[in-house]
Amino acid sequence: MAAKIFRINYKSDFILTMNSDAGWAIPFCIKFWTSVPSRAYFVGFDGTTYTHCAYDPSEPTKLVVQFDDHHLPIGDLNYQIAYHFTVADFPNDTEDEVINPAAITTEIDGDTYHVMLDFTGETAPEIEFNLPAYANEQQRIANEEQRIANEEARVEAEQQRVEEFTEAEQRINAIITEGETAVNNANAAAINANQKAAAAQMAAQNANDASTEANEAASDARAAGESAEAAGQQATTIATAAAQRAETAATAANQAAQAAQQQATGAGKVNAQLSGTVITITNRDGVASSIDVMDSIQEFVDDINSVLDMINGEVI
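The structure corresponding to this sequence follows.
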């Protein structure tokens, strides 16, 4: 009796669900081919990444194989699985266990069908294939233990990644904080420098103002000196004139006395009388002539005091 065949259009993508009691958590490689073995399609797990397939740890016995752009020619679909077990006794710590090649079959309504890629057939179907049970139960148990160890290693690696990320974030925050502190310190230093520059500018302005005031005071002092010198010269002139007037007054007094004496001698009788500082002379005709000596002296003293006041005023 001829075998029943489930046909798939060889140009179509399709899904193959493979069930295995051994699970799919250990590294493996599956080779699929049809009529030309050299034109194969490979599916696998290297311990980190699943290629051309999907695995859900919640369903550890199920592997969903995705035939996407597979380029397989027409013919019966075959497979061969190679498991890569971690064994310390081998040089590369890996033992390869290869399952004998076999055809892919699927159950439909209780009947077994061989899967074949053909010119005609189902387009983008989803089929399911159950792998034979492991002959070595101990190996299956070892595979499960390996799967658990891989999962624990993955969880630990994820925790380590989170810790490293947290440490990196803390370092970045610390760097940002240091940068902000440096910027604040720089701003404070700039403000302080600006304040000192402003104070220095103010001090320079004050110094310039003081210098200007000093120059003005020196100019005023020179002007006052020149005024005092001029006042001194003027006072000398006034004093000289006063002395000359005093000398003239004395000469006039002497001349008056001499004239009086001559008049007295000529008249034969002259009456001279001193009352305080006033001299009164009466001639023979009874005519009196008076002179106040202190008036002349007071005028001289007043002239001298005026000169002194002028000198003192110009110096102050």
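The chain has two helices and 17 strands.
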